[in-house]
Design brief:
Structural class: alpha+beta
CATH class: Alpha Beta
Low-confidence stretches: none
Helix content: 25-40%
Mean pLDDT: 93
Radius of gyration: 17 Å
Largest sheet: 6 strands, mixed
CATH superfamily: Phage minor tail protein U
Strand content: 35-45%
Number of domains: 1
Order of helices and strands: HEEEEHHEE
CATH topology: Alpha-Beta Plaits
Shape: elongated
Length: 147
């Protein structure tokens, strides 16, 4: 059976994030910062979250397709033994954004991608910085295929 568009989108997201030079670990299995070996940091965890769907008619077609808006949350973790994570945090935020918004394989599968925001731990965990970067990825699929 062929992989769904949603599955292909997440494969492209993972590949894009694996292309970030400084990232040591990319995994869909979210781990607590306490569980991650320090040699595996910085780490990113792309998770496919909510996905509202609606019917959409393609131009010049009588076929009814479905349009989906998949939320992808990339949880990021960095560590600094001197508790100075700001530079690492801002560098990785920028690198994740570049990877997500400029990957040609991902762009070929979707209609568009929107950055939704960043939510941080606000510095509450000594020596670590943890945050979520969210993106809305909109794509269409044939309802007969199931997405």
């Amino acid at each position: 059976m062929a992989r769904s568009i949603r599955h292909q989108v997440m494969d492209a997201v993972i590949d894009a994030l694996e292309g970030i030079t400084d990232v040591q670990k990319v995994s869909e299995s979210l781990e607590s910062y306490e569980q991650i070996d320090k040699k595996d940091l910085p780490a990113v965890f792309p998770i496919d979250a909510d996905e509202p769907r609606e019917y959409a008619v393609m131009p010049q077609s009588s076929d009814v397709d479905v349009q989906a808006a998949l939320e992808v949350i990339v949880t990021c973790v960095v560590y600094d033994r001197y508790d100075n994570t700001r530079q690492q945090r801002t560098d990785l935020m920028r690198d994740v954004g570049k990877a997500m918004l400029n990957d040609t394989t991902l762009e070929a599968l979707i209609l568009y991608i929107e950055p939704m925001g960043v939510v941080t731990d606000k510095g509450t965990i000594p020596n670590f910085s943890i945050w979520d970067q969210s993106y809305r990825i909109t794509y269409r699929f044939d309802s007969a295929d199931g997405g």
